[in-house]
Amino acid sequence: MRLTMAGPNQAPIVLDGVAKTFGAGEATASALLPSSLTIREGEFVAFLGPSGCGKTTLLRMIAGLLELTSGRILMSGQPLWEGGRCRKELLHRLGLVFQDACLFPWLTIEQNVLVPLSLRGHLPRRERAPFARAMLALVGAADIAARLPNEISGGMRQRAAIARALSYDPDILLMDEPFGALDAISREALNMELQTLWLRSRKTMVLVTHSIAEAVFLADRIVLFTPGPGRIDRVVEVPFPRPRARDLVFTQPFQDTVRGLHERLSALMEQA
Ligand SMILES: Nc1ncnc2c1ncn2[C@@H]1O[C@H](COP(=O)(O)OP(=O)(O)OP(=O)(O)O)[C@@H](O)[C@H]1O
């Protein structure tokens, strides 16, 4: 089922006092303190914070993979969780990409990208393969359509994972450290591709990252978390116009922004 588009006052994602604790009794541990945030239509938001601050936990709650302990998540104004039950029909708006590409090793890349199309069945059968190839082309991976996952590089596997997430035709792309395991140069190339993808599609994108520079390069707004149990410390607007050139990272204004965030994160970690 496809939902109607969000109205002007219905942001794609609203977090309203969202919190999570794990365990029970004396073993209870807080993973995320109450956090509120509005993610706007078509914006690129990065979640940035030290290890264990609850970024992944929050992303998993937005993805409907983890129940909230308290608070509400609204998707285009509709609560994602109701009475302890996740409203699966709202999840059709989401595409997910994780650090590990999680591709089926016995399927070619094109077949992997076709899986969600077959499962969802939202395209006529004859249109599926061309659509899968178009998604691979969009992320610069058209050449590897016929290869198996273990025959290609980690960077190419992540491109394929993004293409697979896009084949759900999501309005919102949630990404958890998608390039965390890649070398610096591949990561830069993938960041450029991701920016191009965002510029072309204007999908709402949420990226969890440890990298301050990656967050500054890609995001419109950076959500900074305190050390665990984390909460949102502040939301920082990134001032650089688009498209952002690869060389932006070497400029003084970029490095000043990175340094400012670094100093804030260091201060938070010293206070913790
Ligand atoms: N299933 C779970 N059961 C118990 N504790 C958990 C579970 N998942 C996460 N946690 C705990 O919740 C806290 C937040 O973890 P989370 O993975 O969300 O942090 P993170 O900011 O994404 O960290 P990283 O950047 O290292 O991935 C951590 O203390 C973690 O140990």
Automatic annotation (TrEMBL):
A GO molecular function for this record? ATP binding
Query: Which controlled-vocabulary keywords does the entry list?
Result: ATP-binding, Nucleotide-binding, Transport
Query: Could you confirm whether the keyword Nucleotide-binding appears in this record?
Result: yes
* InterPro entries hit by this protein: AAA+_ATPase (IPR003593), ABC_transporter-like_ATP-bd (IPR003439), ABC_transporter-like_CS (IPR017871), ABC_transporter_ATP-bind (IPR050166), P-loop_NTPase (IPR027417)
Q: Pfam families, alphabetically?
A: ABC_tran (PF00005)
The ABC transporter domain sits at: 13-252
Q: Which SMART domains match?
A: AAA
UniProt family annotation: Belongs to the ABC transporter superfamily.
Q: What is this protein called?
A: NitT/TauT family transport system ATP-binding protein
